[in-house]
């Protein structure tokens, strides 16, 4: 009788897993063939590539140069930048520029970096720079320098290259959500590393809970999405301590997430985007004290 629920669940698993991406690739390929757009006309003249002198970053530089884009190489080692820039110009006949930047230094590098990038028409950013601590080390064995470099390169660099004013959705929710994904991944990894040591790590990843920060957003949610008050939520979350390494904190939240996961990711993203735009509109109209 309810066989269609299983069919729908399998379809959504396939759709969110690979079908949506595959359909997008097929449609994009068809449009490219019909419109005959070249990369510089479609995206802009310059591609900025971080971590561009080796590996994936260098290949992006070469492949985009092959498609006619000028290349701005950004990496740490000056002599490598000079060599790669010269080779790309020779092989593909495009313009190149380069910037020697050490992303591990953190926020201090971004002002001069933006000033340098202001001189070119940036059409594409390939933010490839990253840092990998020694794989043989556990979290407590990582040096402070490795931890700081990993955060500055893997998270800080991705978050600092922002779209122009007016193009972000609202209120830094993108960076907030991304930071929570990092926290969840860190907590789950720590729980695994600490297994058998007598030390426990629990990750609590709730849905919407009514707090001072979330109350405006909570008002915009549909009525069927019940929002828990903090006392009820925390009482339930405390009950889970020592029992599981990962929890939503209250049984209502995984039920809500389960139903949301039955939607295509594109529909879910669109719905959240509409809510955030409404929230932005409400808050901009509300005078601050």
UniProtKB/TrEMBL annotation:
Cell compartments where the protein resides: Endoplasmic reticulum
InterPro entries: NAD(P)-bd_dom_sf, Sc_DH/Rdtase_CS, SDR_fam, VLCFA-Steroid_DH
One GO cellular component term noted in the UniProt record for this chain: endoplasmic reticulum
Gene3D superfamilies reported in the protein's UniProt record: NAD(P)-binding Rossmann-like Domain
Molecular function via GO: oxidoreductase activity
Pfam families hit by this protein: adh_short
Keyword tags: Membrane, Oxidoreductase, Transmembrane, Transmembrane helix
Superkingdom field: Eukaryota
Residues annotated as transmembrane: 6-30
The name this protein goes by in its record: Steroid dehydrogenase
SUPFAM superfamilies listed in its UniProt record: NAD(P)-binding Rossmann-fold domains
């Amino acid at each position: 009788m309810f066989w269609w629920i299983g069919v729908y669940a399998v379809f959504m698993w396939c759709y969110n897993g690979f079908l949506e991406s595959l359909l997008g690739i097929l449609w994009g390929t068809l449009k490219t063939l019909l419109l005959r757009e070249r990369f510089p006309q479609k995206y802009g003249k310059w591609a900025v590539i971080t971590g561009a002198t080796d590996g994936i970053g260098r290949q992006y530089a070469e492949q985009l140069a092959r498609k006619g884009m000028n290349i701005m190489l950004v990496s740490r080692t000056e002599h490598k930048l000079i060599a790669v820039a010269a080779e790309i110009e020779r092989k593909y006949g495009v313009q190149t520029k380069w910037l020697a930047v050490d992303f591990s230094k953190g926020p201090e590098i971004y002002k001069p970096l933006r000033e340098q990038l202001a001189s070119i028409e940036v059409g594409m950013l390939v933010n490839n720079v990253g840092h990998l601590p020694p794989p043989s080390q556990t979290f407590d064995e990582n040096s402070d320098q490795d931890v700081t470099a990993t955060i500055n390169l893997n998270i800080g660099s991705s978050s600092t290259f922002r779209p122009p004013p007016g193009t972000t959705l609202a209120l830094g929710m993108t960076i907030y959500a991304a930071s929570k994904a990092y926290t969840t991944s860190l907590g789950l990894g720590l729980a695994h590393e600490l297994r058998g040591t007598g030390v426990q790590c629990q990750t609590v990843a709730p849905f919407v809970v009514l707090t001072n920060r979330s109350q405006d957003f909570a008002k915009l949610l549909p009525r069927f999405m019940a929002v828990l008050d903090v006392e009820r939520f925390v009482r339930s979350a405390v009950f889970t301590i020592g029992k599981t390494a990962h929890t939503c904190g209250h049984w209502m939240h995984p039920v809500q997430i389960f139903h949301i996961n039955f939607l295509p990711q594109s529909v879910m993203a669109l719905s959240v985007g509409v809510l955030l735009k409404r929230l932005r509109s409400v808050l901009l109209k509300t005078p601050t004290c």
